[in-house]
Amino acid sequence: MRVFLTGASGHIASALIPEMIGAGHTVVGLVRSDQAAAKAESLGAEVHLGDLSDLDGLAAAAAKADGVVHLAFDHQRQSGGDLEGAVGADLAAVQTIGAALAGSGKPFVGTNATGGIALAGFQGVLTEDVSLAGGPRIDAENAVLALAGQDVRASVVRLPPAVHGNGGYGFVSGLIEIARAAGSAGYLGEGGNRWGATALEDASRAYRLALESARAGSRIHAVAEAGIAMRDIAETIGHRLGVPTAAVTAEDAATRFGFLTPFVSMDNPVSSRSTRETLGWAPSRPGLIAALESDPLLTPSPR
Ligand SMILES: NC(=O)c1ccc[n+]([C@@H]2O[C@H](COP(=O)([O-])OP(=O)(O)OC[C@H]3O[C@@H](n4cnc5c(N)ncnc54)[C@H](OP(=O)(O)O)[C@@H]3O)[C@@H](O)[C@H]2O)c1
């Protein structure tokens, strides 16, 4: 398949491009700078220069492809306080790609974050059949899945907060930076609230399987570890950085965790049973704690 991939210079793409090429697909990656182009090309992708806001360019690239995987999300805009802008740009992009694919029978794999569903009010173990009426990023998920009714083999991969590999840990990378700066690794309250996790290679395999064979309208949980207590994550970070681990009070949370505060507060356990059964997805890489424990770059900060 000739696959149009947005977010081709990002963390997930660093494993997904080799995964797709290894399976015989050709990847055309959306990039918005020469630096991003060099990154995607070094992994074997062709590039399409453009921005998520260039809707005509997105539509043209999607129409030329046999399938689309949408990873791009403006995290800089999110962490800078403009979540609404980042979410709006994402929704416009999926609507544009969807319109270009309507009636084609081609696959379109979108992306959502399990954490956003917890933050939108869902409580308990998130399963693939749970959908919410709306909310940040949930509107884009619903827009992608609605394309199943327009002859698009549309699916959405939901990722946990910690996708780890190639030197990155998703939101856990943010916790590591914060712990280095603060001189202690923090968690909120008792730290019993949980985040799911998945190794990058396993997450990439889930995307490829979705592209190749997901049923139209399916939600895919690329979540290998259902829920790791935040206290365990903090203790591992503290151990690796050589700093103490400490509970942070609710009053100090925003100062300590910044835009990550709602995520650090949430309990987000996730089941991936249906994904494993329907796609034959079998994650095999070491878990988050083992990855943190064995990362040679995680060393005590100089004092
Ligand atoms: N990694 C995780 O643990 C994790 C967890 C949950 C959900 N997710 C979701 O998975 C997807 C991929 O995540 P990631 O970790 O690969 O993200 P990432 O490393 O931050 O990469 C984001 C990608 O999107 C591109 N991008 C951002 N704004 C753009 C714009 N306006 N126009 C064109 N491209 C733009 C970036 O390009 P530049 O290189 O030019 O900035 C980059 O290629 C995202 O939707 C993310 O929210 C990831």
Automatic annotation (TrEMBL):
Pfam families: Epimerase (PF01370). Residues 3-76 form the NAD-dependent epimerase/dehydratase domain. This is SDR family oxidoreductase. InterPro entries: Epimerase_deHydtase, NAD(P)-bd_dom_sf, NAD(P)-dependent_oxidoreduct. Transmembrane segments: none annotated. Coiled coil: none annotated.
